[in-house]
Amino acid sequence: MQGQDYIFVREFVAFAASVLIKAWKESDDSEGDTEVILGGMAGLHDEIAWFKKEASKWGVELSETVPQKANQLYCRFLESLMSPEVDYTVAITVFWAIEAVYQESFAHCLEPDTNTPPELQEVCQRWGNDGFGQYCHSLKKIANRLLEKASDDLIVGKAGDDVLKKAEVELIRVLEHEVEFWNMSRGTA
């Protein structure tokens, strides 16, 4: 499934770039949003290089990998969120959710008594490590801050309700896409 992950990460880079632009345009950056997102993008560079190295090791030709349906749908979903009309609050909530699901899934494999096969330990350590967990926590803080602001705007009669509803809908869509992607990876989709 490395090829499918590689395809997704390449699309995720474009999505991350769109979130970075939204952060630059819509935040005063006193909270360091752009630095957090930019740090994540640097990690994506390393991730792509790692996928290429692993594909070479396993004889997988990434350029010949055809995206499976679950991957195509997830990538289309990401593309739909790159539009300038999508609010930064919605985009960062989705960004956090995608990263957090990935990190928590692999962190679970590192817990005692999970019987993770030795050949998967490196992968689990790569994405389940505490450093990636801290990064996800930073994204969560940004998303929570913006969601709170939207909630406060709603209380004072500004347009926060629409943003909150969209963020909730897109968060649920992330979870649905994640389930389908993991099922695809396990060969059950």
TrEMBL record:
PANTHER family referenced in this protein's UniProt entry, alphabetically: BIFUNCTIONAL TENA-E PROTEIN (PTHR43198:SF5), BIFUNCTIONAL TH2 PROTEIN (PTHR43198)
GO biological process: thiamine metabolic process
Cellular component terms per the entry's GO annotation: cytosol
Gene3D superfamilies tied to this protein: Heme oxygenase-like
Stated name of the protein: Thiaminase-2/PQQC domain-containing protein
Highest taxon of the lineage: Eukaryota
Pfam families on file: TENA_THI-4
Thiaminase-2/PQQC domain boundaries: 4-186
